[in-house]
Amino acid sequence: MNPTIELMNARSSTRAYDPAPLSDAEKQTILHTTMRAPTAGNLMLYSIIEIEDQALKDRLAVTCDDQPFIARAPWVLVFVADYQKWIDLFAFSNVSELPGVRHRAVPGLGDLLDACCDALIAAQNAVIAAESLGIGSCYIGDILERAEEHTELLGLPNHTLPIAMLCFGRPAKPRRPTPHYEKHVVHKDRYRRLSPEELREASAELAHLHAPRGFPRGIENIGQDVYARKFTADFAHEMNRSVAVWLERWQTPEG
After folding, report:
1. How many DSSP H helices and E strands does the chain contain?
2. Is residue 13 pLDDT above 70, yes or no?
C-alpha cells in the first residue's frame, strides 16, 4: 500500500490537541495545498476565514453546539462558499453594459452548489495536507447553524455561506481510525434502493458498528436511534432553519 493511501486509511477526527501552535511554514504549506484543489471552471468559488482572535474562537465553541475543544484548537479555518467576490467583480467590470447577454443580479442555487463543492473539496485537501504533516483535524458542520449570529460574527455578505469549519492541531493522544460501513454505498449504473432483506441486514450490522453496547431505553434499532438522536434533534431543526436563512440571503440582492 502506498503512503498516501495509508495516511488516508489511518486518519480520524482529532478533538484533543497538543497546545503547541502550528508554524507559519506549516500553515502556508496547508493553505497552498488547499488552493490546489479542483474547482469549477477555475473560479475558486470559496474563501477561507482564518480565526485568530481567541474571543471569537471561544464564541464559536459555544455557537457551534457547545464544543469546548474548538476554543482549544491551535488553528481554525472557516470555509465559505463565496460568489460575492464574483458579483463584486461583475459590478466593477460594468457587465450590465454587455449587449446580447441574459442578465441576472444574484447567483442561483446551482451557483451555490458549485461554490459549496469548491469549498468542501478545498477543505478536504487541507485535511489531507495537514495529516501528512502530523497535524490532525476535525470538521465542524455546526457552523451552518445560528445563521444570524454567524453572519454577524464573521461579517458575511449575502452571497456567501459558511459550509464547514475545520479545527487543526497535533493530536494530544493516540487516535484510532473510525470504522465506516462500506456496504451498499457503490451502485452500478443506476441508483438502487435496498430490499427489506438488505435493510434488515444493514440495520443489524450498523447497530453492531455504532452501538455495540446496545441502545438507550425505548430504542429498539439503529434506525430509531439515528432518527431520535440525529434526524429529529434540536440541532437538526436549527440547522434546517438556518439553511433556509442562508438560501434566502444567497438569492437576495444586497441593498
Report:
1. 10, 4
2. yes
